[in-house]
Sequence to fold (313 residues):
Amino acid sequence: MFEVVRYAAEQAGQWNAFVAKSKNATFLFDRSYMDYHADRFTDHSLMIYRRGRLYALLPANECDGGVLESHGGLTYGGLVMSRGCTGADVEQAMRCICDYLRKNGFRKVIYKPTPWIYHRQPSEEDLYALFAVCEARLVARGLSSVICRDDRNEWFRIRSMGRRRAQEAGIAIQETDHLEPFWQILTTNLKEKYNLLPVHTVEEMQLLKSRFPENIHLVTAVKDGQTLAGTVLYVTPTVVHSQYIAASPEGKRLHALDLLFGQVIEQALQQHPYFDFGISTERDGEYLNAQLAYQKEGFGGRGLCYDHYEWTL
Fold:
């Protein structure tokens, strides 16, 4: 009843059309997004057909040692399902996926399901199949901070005071297509604090922003023509997600992010039920950056888990 086929580039149109109509996908699964870093990954995405009709997708890549990861270049990347998917059929589809992977020499799967707030309708049939079919185990858990539009928390006093201070300093909040000043702040902060670079280069983000102008936005805090802070927002049907956040030393001193997020959150929740600050954990969730989490919780964010599962074939 089910057939599992490896994705090929000539199927991009069919893939993207399915993503657009699925019940739990975001624009991150569009091939125009996934393939911007195709040179870094050996793609081994799967297309699952039921009685000849496309039923589900699995964005994935090969790793050394016979490992399939869904997907190494994405924050999340579990099974993309049609609105017609049912529990029993997803169980059977997962069995067929495992059979396909065994036949093709894979020995282990790393699976990153899409957090439920990004679903357009309930879509956790895959989580049940992980338990019932794959006997998967939880191997990593990131803790994010999310604001729910319909049940919001008050800001911490320190955040409210910071917003007033930034207002008094004459800071302006604006959306811009000019990424370089913000990227300089972001890169400097990550290098000094963690000895890391942003996942995306500024050129890559400019490319993605040009491909998805309705989904990717940069909002900055500016004073006297100087960029002090900013956030890159990823907009999906149900969630506005803060992909990057950074402030310069002067921006931190003037609490620019408090003013910025006051405006960004209000605008986001007018049309979307959730605002997601992203995870505050490191080392696959073994360490919680409590200071970073406290900042996000100060705006009213509360916990949402980003999970990674693993099973052997």
The chain has ten helices and 17 strands. The chain has a mean pLDDT of 97.
